Amino acid sequence: MADNLGITVKKEKDFSEWYTQVIQKAELADIRYNVKGFLVFQPWSVLSMEKMYKYLEKVLQKKGHKPYWYPTLIPERNFKLESSHIAGFTPEVFWVTSHGDNQPIEEKLALRPTSETAFYQMFSYWIRSYRDLPFKTYQRAQVFRYETKATRPFLRSREFHWVETHCAHATKEDAMKQVYEDMNTTKEVLHDIYGLPFMFFERPEWDKFPGAERTFAADVLNPDGKVIQQPSTHLLKQSFAKAFNVTYKDKEEKDQFVWITCYGPAISRIFASVIIVHGDDKGLRFPWKIAPVEIVIAVIKPNEELLKKAEKIKEKFQEQDFSVEIDATERTFGEKCFFWELKGVPIRIELGEKELKENKLGLFRRDLSKREKVEEKDLVKEVKNIAQEFDKNLTEQADALFNNKISPAKDKKSLKAGIESGKIVKSEFCSVANEGRTCAEWIEKETQAFVRGTRLDETEKPKGNCIICEKKATALVYIARSY
Amino acid sequence: MADNLGITVKKEKDFSEWYTQVIQKAELADIRYNVKGFLVFQPWSVLSMEKMYKYLEKVLQKKGHKPYWYPTLIPERNFKLESSHIAGFTPEVFWVTSHGDNQPIEEKLALRPTSETAFYQMFSYWIRSYRDLPFKTYQRAQVFRYETKATRPFLRSREFHWVETHCAHATKEDAMKQVYEDMNTTKEVLHDIYGLPFMFFERPEWDKFPGAERTFAADVLNPDGKVIQQPSTHLLKQSFAKAFNVTYKDKEEKDQFVWITCYGPAISRIFASVIIVHGDDKGLRFPWKIAPVEIVIAVIKPNEELLKKAEKIKEKFQEQDFSVEIDATERTFGEKCFFWELKGVPIRIELGEKELKENKLGLFRRDLSKREKVEEKDLVKEVKNIAQEFDKNLTEQADALFNNKISPAKDKKSLKAGIESGKIVKSEFCSVANEGRTCAEWIEKETQAFVRGTRLDETEKPKGNCIICEKKATALVYIARSY
User: Fold this and answer.
1) What is the distance, to the nearest Å, from the Cα of residue A338 to the centroid of all Cα atoms in its chain?
2) H helix or E strand, kind and range, residue A256
3) Termini Cα distance of chain A
4) Residue of B227, B234, B220 whose CA lies nearest to B274
5) Are A456 and A177 in contact (CB under 8 A)?
6) In terms of C-beta distances under 8 Å and separation of at least 24 residues, what long-range contacts does A316-321 make, across chains too?
7) Cβ contact, residue pair B50, A36, below 8 Å
8) Which of A180, A265, A359, A466, by CA, is between 20 and 30 Å from A51?
């Protein structure tokens, strides 16, 4: 069913076209669904994203988050309770207003763009005492946003698949601890499982989530020098707790408002980074842990005997809990190699008459693009060895590229040069409070780049002056173009 | 947080109240969410339903179904393409008509009540040749129906969580094979994993899915004598293939329309049957495989030493992949027993000063409601033994009850008596084609029961006459009240 001609452009040269081709040719998503900004996720991406969900949820549950399923619909009145939230989100809300044959419903209902206003009203029923805190929840869900910017599969669609965590805490200090925990979760999952390097920033005052006191987020870098915001985490203003009356009795039996944090890893968008960060000119390269299929057995000129052998090998691997597919199609061997490299399967086993006679099979690994001959009896052992080091290899390659893309700037000129060459530029900056906004706007206008914020994962102190206004710097910031 | 007083009514005596109390007191779902017919699923149900999904999806994937994620929204024009489908579903559809600040959207969009009209337009892009068939897909999703009947948590809500499979076949015969496969899936998952007895019927002509040529469904029985329709599977009319132009080239290169089947196990509704079928007067009883937590360690008068011991025991079990919780709350031991039996945890381990001294712990199993003393060193072994037979015990108990509830009727009187005593009544019947409708309506009027159909899982031939109109019977049907 797929067009097997392979990717016709180089990833570094024409990243945008490379991305479009990979998604179509590897059958990750079909954009021909007839509602603008919505797409159909196909098995090859769903199988991987399901694994991504599994790891993320496992880590969240281990850290004490309990899973919920909230309704997809939120009544308009809930939105109205927190004013900055409604101002921020209203333009993006899809509204359900009728049912059946044009009959109006009792109250306008929002397709959730995010679920703060659904969760916190329920918190007010469930949280009673300091003993209930921290109250750590999450849900796996889809959210809906009427994007006006151009949509791109996985990167930005009007419906996306995410996890949102919502936690209530007794104090602001506890809430900040949760932010650090969220940052560590991002590291444990996005970096250590999915193999994605990132920096974790506190966003400047002018780039906060609607209703947040402080906003933090991970930025992942694309080869075109643009960053993508991946999980963000917010220390919300107490206005949310007040709007939904979420209080607890402290040890002195006094009523206190809780402090709320929320964290939103968008699996379908993180999957975009998996495609982009690990892919190469031939197509996808899946980390082992989240590969839709781990091993493909490419049968060269299939016949009955070869297929029997292929089935036997498949069973051997399945006994060891590997996921395996056999390619016994009419495609030529060359086409099969092309196709499965494009699909990003970690291991390809090659089996034909020659291999059968010699009792040695071809073994191709996608992390290093290396082929070897392996005796049949050693096959499982060898694949196990590769599985052990596969993700480490992909992650190290990604880390090396990422670290090479951070560039300090001492003045406007080197800032511009850094941004132009597709880097994340590190710079002294006057202020990430509102006073700094003018300098940020100058940067945006001159370089189309944005002040992404200050690092939360490292303590970095400014020493010099802002490279824009030359006032004394109060922050070391990172500047990059973005999606 | 929970009201721990236990269930105050008997399941058999006041089933409806029993059901309401279990859901609230075991913290399965909260009905206080402020949109009518929508509810919040709490961790204790979500953890179980996630396991239910896992088993179901594993079986589907093993049988060759590939996972997709389709958009939640379906444009109105898709609905209009198949006339019986739009007639059947329109009354239940929620419509998205605007975005942002009351701005109309380009086209009315339905919150999917089911996804035939989303899937099949994509099938037309993907299916080319007989080699692509059968084309077997599924998605895990929520669906939305503006129910006008009274809603009840899990049983009937306006949003529910399900799996829908959609398959395209070359011939009608192949499609019918799929129906049988779906029936077997229902057995393998609903009965063999979730422990739910059911009968699998072909529905009478007048009770078919909108757009189906034939409709089949599993019925599960409640203690109040009403059946719940669980997964249904449909052999659709070719009108769907024609409406969306889903064709394939056969071996002679001739264009043919496909035959489509779909199958819809609603996890959140099947969960209702799990509650109802396995529960007892004390509350829930989870089958081991789908228990949110398998083991609770109830610490009697907790102190530091006991908690340390409890942690050690927990770790031992976790090493063997059991899920364990420690109850070290201030509740009395009696309250803890009450609470965890209500919650339906399969195993409770009891640990207090006495147990510590004697090195023998209390071990309570929920399947047989039995308590024994077990030496600490034998604990894991003993729990493993119980885990082995736990689900078999629950399933056998459920099967025995179910089989006892099938009652043959030879005339109108015994039909009425059977229905009144809460049974599924088996009877000779004139016809499940439209000719039989009058008799079915008589039954509905006189007994508030419905002709559920003829068995697909057993071949049963009629010998006598219809017990209503006394014409020669052409079918053996089952009659029951229903939700």
Assistant:
1) 27
2) strand A255-257
3) 32
4) B220
5) no
6) A316/A379, A316/A380, A317/A380, A317/A383, A320/A380, A320/A384
7) no
8) A180
Q: What is the pLDDT of residue B4?
A: 52
Residues 6 or more apart in contact with residue B117 via CB below 8 angstroms: B74, B78, B79, B81, B82, B85, B244
Q: What does DSSP assign to residue B280?
A: B
The amino acid at residue A132 is D
Task: Catalogue all structural domains in chain A, each as residue range(s) with its CATH number.
Answer: 15-278 (3.30.930.10), 293-386 (3.40.50.800), 406-482 (3.30.110.30)
Q: Is the pLDDT of residue A4 over 70?
A: no
**In this predicted structure, what is the pLDDT of residue A84?**
81
Angstrom distance (rounded) from CA B380 to CA A144: 47
Work out the angle at residue B356's Cα, subtended by the Cα atoms of residues B355 and B360, and round it to the nearest 5 degrees.
50
pLDDT tens digits, residue range B51-75?
Answer: 999 999 999 999 999 999 999 999 9
Beta-carbon contacts of B328 under 8 Å, excluding residues fewer than 6 positions away, are B299, B302, B307, B310
* Strand order through the sheet with B295-299: B324-327, B295-299, B347-351, B360-365, B370-375
In this prediction, does ipTM exceed 0.90?
yes
Indicate the residue of A69, A98, A159 with minimum beta-carbon distance to B46.
Answer: A69
Contact A2, A211 (CB under 8 A): no
Q: Does A72 touch chain B (CB under 8 A)?
A: yes
Pairing of strands B295-299, B347-351: parallel
Share above pLDDT 90 across residues of chain B, in percent, rounded to a whole number: 93
How far, in Å, CA of A316 to CA of A304, rounded? 19
Q: Which residues of A touch B159 (CB under 8 A)?
A: 71-73
Chain A residue with minimal CA distance to B146? A99
Distance CA B442, CA B450 (A): 10
A411 touches chain B (CB under 8 A): no
For residue A73, the chain B residues in CB contact (below 8 A) are 35, 38, 94, 159
| Sequence letter at residue A89 | F
Which residues between 141 and 200 in chain A have a beta carbon less than 8 angstroms from any beta carbon of chain B? 142, 144, 146, 159, 161
The one-letter amino acid code at A264 reads: G
A30 has a chain B CB within 8 A of its CB: yes
For the four alpha carbons of B320, B321, B327 and B328, in that order, the dihedral sign comes to: positive
Name residue A2's amino acid: A
Q: What gap in Å lies between CA B127 and CA A1, rounded to an integer?
A: 8
